[in-house]
Design a protein that fits this description.
Length: 258
């Protein structure tokens, strides 16, 4: 008995390969567009992301807008930052009048491939970014310090904490020009560390979490000159300056000495 002829003709195989190639091309094109639009997307990229959104978001191919894939842009905000927390027992007394319970450094060891370590680095970088005096956000930095300090105080039976964020500067190519006095062979030396944020976090009598930022020297307003003794109040005006003394004629001083 003769076998039935197959229906897969060369024309059908060619059409199927063409359709599959088109589908694969569209898929990779959509994924490439959303991956290349995660940072500083253009107007055209924004339109394409909106068009491909139902497909890429539904299959979890879109990492979102704030997912940079660059290592660094050479900005100060791209440098790594760490967080140090000093814990104290009494929330009502200042830290200078009580002993230190424990000091915690975040991230504390571990592999760079672990999620917790990367998460703490990103948290410290965000805190340093929000603490920028020129383009920062005091409300966000205070909220991060309050949440972090509250968690560590709860875990260590403390009622006061000092949250400190330190940014580590990266070594420039020309060390002699930018950082002449910095150690060249030790990029982790303390000279490269700069404290960008410091705040007191404590539990008050109602167990509510309070946070107070410590002002840096650059943010403190200059002290006003004390009023003169002749002024009677804040609204008093300073007395008119006395006329400058006229210089004596050298000839007169010469004649008087004779």
């Amino acid at each position: 008995m003769a076998s039935a002829p197959t229906s897969n003709s060369p024309e059908q195989n060619s059409t199927l390969r063409g359709v599959l190639s088109l589908v694969i091309f569209i898929h990779f094109f959509c994924v490439l567009v959303v991956l290349s639009s995660t940072f500083r997307r253009s107007e055209l990229q924004a339109r394409l992301v909106t068009l491909f959104g139902p497909y890429t978001t539904g299959l979890d191919f879109d990492p979102g807008y704030h997912t940079p894939y660059h290592y660094t842009l050479g900005r100060v905000g791209d440098n790594d930052a760490v967080i140090d927390i000093d814990l104290y027992a009494n929330g009502e007394e200042p830290v200078a009048n009580q002993p230190l319970i424990k000091s915690i450094h975040l991230p504390d060891g571990g592999s760079s491939f672990l999620g917790d370590r990367r998460r703490y680095f990103e948290l410290a970088k965000r805190l340093a970014l929000y603490a920028d005096p020129e383009d920062g956000n005091d409300a966000m930095s205070s909220e991060l310090a309050r949440a972090l300090g509250h968690r560590l105080m709860r875990e260590n039976d403390a009622r006061r904490a000092v949250v400190r964020c330190t940014r580590r500067l990266s070594q420039p190519l020309n060390m002699d020009l930018m950082f002449p006095n910095f150690p060249k062979n030790d990029p982790t030396a303390p000279a490269y560390d700069s404290v960008v944020y410091e705040a007191d976090v404590w539990l008050d009598e109602d167990n509510a979490v309070q946070a107070q930022k410590r002002s840096s020297a650059a943010e403190v307003a200059p002290r006003r000159t004390a009023p003169s003794r002749g002024s009677s109040g804040p609204g008093a005006t300073d007395p008119a300056p006395s006329a400058p003394a006229t210089a004596k004629n050298p000839a007169d001083s010469t004649s008087s000495t004779k």
